[in-house]
Amino acid sequence: MNIQPILAEAEANLGRGRAVATGIGVFLVVVNEKGDPLLRRRLEKDSLYGQDLSGKWEMTGGGMELSHFEQADSQEPAVSRYQRPALQALAQELEEEAGLKLDDNEWFPLVMVPAFLCRKYERDGNPRTTIDLAFSTPVQFSAFEPTAKFFELMERGGLMFVPRAKLPEIEIVSPRTRFLIEQALEINDLIARR
Question: Which SUPFAM superfamilies does this UniProt record tie to the protein (predicted)?
């Protein structure tokens, strides 16, 4: 994908004083029949916060890539056309991180909770600013096909369904991640009541 038009549009928006996201993350709060969220123990040492967060708990998900936007088709139904990039990123991350498969042809509306993060810092003596936008969405565990990797991660303690009452005691990677988990669970509860 040619990024020059994207950079030109970002510069134009910045020139008008508009915020431009420097990163977009999508995360799933997979919920079992009891309403407990599936969390993964973070393995990666690097983080958006510039800290080693390995060993702490988080949702499955990650950053969207330009390739997720390249397959949009104006002839598709609106749900798949406008949400396909997020669903593709979520399906990819979920299989990589949790061993759960989502059928590529299985499209469903996403109810997404947003959370922003603006961070100012220096790199190589130069001031930097990142504006990161993350979304979480609740999805029932029954929507996925568990693979052998999922069961292995569950057995080794790399994944766990956290009882809701125990969630405050779990060491989550960041306050923003905790917010996204809690908000997605509230949405899940609202949907379940319908």
Answer: Nudix
In-domain check, residue 11: no
Neighbours of 65 (CB within 10 A): 14
Q: Are strands 23-31 and 126-140 parallel, antiparallel or unpaired?
A: parallel
Look up tokens 């749900």; give the residue.
79
Q: Examine the pLDDT at 157 and tell me if it is beyond 70.
A: yes
Structural domain that includes position 124 = 26-193
Which CATH number characterizes residue 82's domain?
A: 3.90.79.10
Q: pLDDT tens, 74-96? A: 677 666 677 778 888 888 999 99
The number of folded domains in the chain is 1
Global pTM value? 0.82
Band of pLDDT at residue 100, cut at 50, 70 and 90: very high
Residue matched to tokens 């969220």: 37
Residue 83 host element (H or E): helix 78-98
29 burial (CB, 10 Å; 0-12 / 13-18 / 19+) is: buried
**Residue 13, domain member (yes or no):** no
